[in-house]
Amino acid sequence: MKMIKNVMYSGMLICAFMLIFFATKEFKNTKDLLNTGVKTRAKVIKLIKKRSDDGETYSPLFQFTDASNKKITFQSSSSSRPARYRIEDKVGIIYSSTDSNHYKVISFLGLYGWTILGLCLASPLLTIGVGYFLYARG
Q1: I want to staple 27 with a disulfide (CB 3.0 to 4.6 A). Which of 49, 87, 115, 131 is the partner?
Q2: Is there a contact between 89 and 76 (Cβ–Cβ < 8 Å)?
Q3: Measured between alpha carbons, how far is residue 127 from residues 11, 27, 87, 101 in Å?
Q4: Is 17 exposed, middle or buried (0-12, 13-18, 19+ CB in 10 A)?
Q5: Which of 51, 48, 79, 80 is CA-nearest to residue 61?
Q6: pTM to 2 decimals?
Q7: Tens-of-pLDDT digits for all 138 residues of the chain?
Q8: Considering only CA atoms, which of 46, 59, 39, 55 is closest in space to residue 105?
Q9: Domain boundaries, the chain
């Protein structure tokens, strides 16, 4: 029984460390993008309806022109109800100077959402895993 508990709590610790690693990596990528990226404004050209168990949500379709005058269109990975943006709204974005297909919306969650999510998921796993091993030590 003790062996099963050790494996289970070790698995929690491994998951926590993996989440912390990827959250840290995502934070570094965002920091590098902010330091070297190109800031511009994107226009909401369409709101795409997504159906889910909770009803319909809306995901914005953005369009911007990069430094080489190439029009780039991308759909936001998040959706909401009610729609967060309206058609023709302008939104600040930042894209990589070397790859205009790497971009983020300039907002707190747009920049740091994945980092926060990873750390929020890792925190209880880390606390429970470390707490178990400290308690088991006596």
Answers
A1: 115
A2: no
A3: 13, 22, 44, 37
A4: middle
A5: 48
A6: 0.81
A7: 778 888 999 999 999 999 999 999 999 999 999 999 999 999 999 999 988 777 889 999 999 998 889 999 999 888 888 888 999 999 999 999 888 778 899 999 889 999 999 999 999 999 999 999 999 887
A8: 39
A9: 1-36+113-138, 38-95
Q: Distance between CA 18 and CA 3 in Å, rounded? A: 22
Tokens matching residue 99: 């790859």
Reading the block at residue 74, the tokens are 């991308």
CB count, 10 Å around CB of 59? 18
In one-letter notation, the amino acid at residue 82 is P
